[in-house]
Design brief:
The protein has 230 residues and is α/β, with parallel strands linked by helices. It has a single domain, classed as Rossmann fold. 44% of the residues lie in helices and 13% in strands. The strands form two sheets. The chain has a five-stranded parallel sheet with strand order 3-2-1-4-5, sandwiched between helices. Helix 1 packs across helix 6, helix 2 packs across helix 6 and helix 4 packs across helix 5. The mean pLDDT is 88.
C-alpha cells in the first residue's frame, strides 16, 4: 500500500530537512505552507526556490513530490502582535517566553494540515518541531503534539501519525541529517535556498545561509552549522 505524507513546509531549514526526510521515506509527499503575515514572509517565496532546486538535483525525489498548498491564516496576526509581526522588537516576556512565540500557531497549522491530509489521503503529517534547540515554545513540545494527534484522530475518526523527525536533535544534528540524506548537494541547497532569520533579512550571505546574524533563529542556525562543520 502506498505510504503518503504531508509536510508542513515553511521554507526554513528545519522544514526543508523534514521534506527531504519524508521524500526519502515515503512513496508520495505533498507540502503545505501557511501565510500568517509573518515578518519573515520572504520564506514563503524562498520555499518555491528550494522545491525547484530539489526537483532538479534529486530526480528520484522529484517523482514522489506532489502538489503544494498555501493556506492563508493571516487572521492569526489580527489576534495580537508578536515578535514575528513587522515593527515589533524581539524580546523576552514576563512569562519567560520570547515574544516570537505565536500563541496557537502550531495547533492551527496541524489542524489545517490534517484537514488537507484527510482529503489527500496522507496518513503521515510531518513537522519540524523540536524540543532540543528551541525557544521554549510550548506548542513545539512532544507531549503537546502527541495530545494533538490523539485529538485530531478522535475528531476526524482517522489514524493520522504526526511525525517530528527533529524532535530530539539539535541544529548541528539537523545539518548532519541533511548531509546523510542528500550529501553536499543538499547542504548547499539548504544554505542557499532556505530562510530561517526572524527579521526576513536576505541581504547578507553567511557560510550558513542568509540572515541578519543577530536574531535567535540566526544564532541557532549559525552555531549548529559551525558545530556540524567542526
Amino acid at each position: 500500500m502506498e505510504q503518503r505524507a504531508l509536510v508542513l513546509f515553511s521554507g526554513g531549514q528545519d522544514s526543508a530537512t523534514c521534506l527531504a526526510w519524508a521524500l526519502d521515506r515515503y512513496d508520495y509527499v505533498e507540502t503545505v505552507g501557511f501565510d500568517y503575515k509573518q515578518r519573515h514572509g520572504v520564506e514563503l517565496e524562498i520555499r518555491q526556490e528550494f522545491v525547484s532546486a530539489l526537483r532538479s538535483n534529486f530526480p528520484n525525489w522529484s517523482e514522489k513530490l506532489g502538489r503544494d498548498t498555501m493556506v492563508d491564516i493571516s487572521g492569526l496576526a489580527d489576534l495580537g502582535e508578536t515578535g514575528l509581526t513587522p515593527g515589533v522588537e524581539i524580546r523576552m516576556q514576563e512569562n519567560g517566553l520570547p515574544n516570537t512565540f505565536v500563541p496557537g500557531r502550531n495547533l492551527i497549522f496541524f489542524t489545517y494540515a490534517s484537514a488537507l491530509a484527510y482529503r489527500r489521503e496522507c496518513k503521515h503529517i510531518v513537522g519540524g518541531m523540536c524540543e532540543t534547540d528551541f525557544s521554549g515554545y510550548p506548542d513545539c513540545r512532544d507531549d503537546t503534539l502527541k495530545a494533538l494527534q490523539a485529538t485530531i484522530n478522535l475528531g476526524m475518526e482517522t489514524r493520522f501519525v504526526i511525525e517530528t523527525p527533529l524532535m530530539w536533535i539539535d541544529k548541528a544534528a539537523t545539518w548532519s541529517m541533511a548531509n546523510e540524506l542528500g550529501g553536499q548537494t543538499l547542504i548547499e541547497l539548504m544554505t542557499e535556498h532556505t530562510h530561517t532569520c526572524y527579521t526576513g533579512d536576505r541581504t547578507i550571505r553567511h557560510d550558513w545561509g542568509y540572515g541578519c546574524g543577530e536574531c535567535p533563529a540566526c544564532d541557532l542556525r549559525q552555531k549548529g552549522f559551525q558545530s556540524f562543520k567542526s
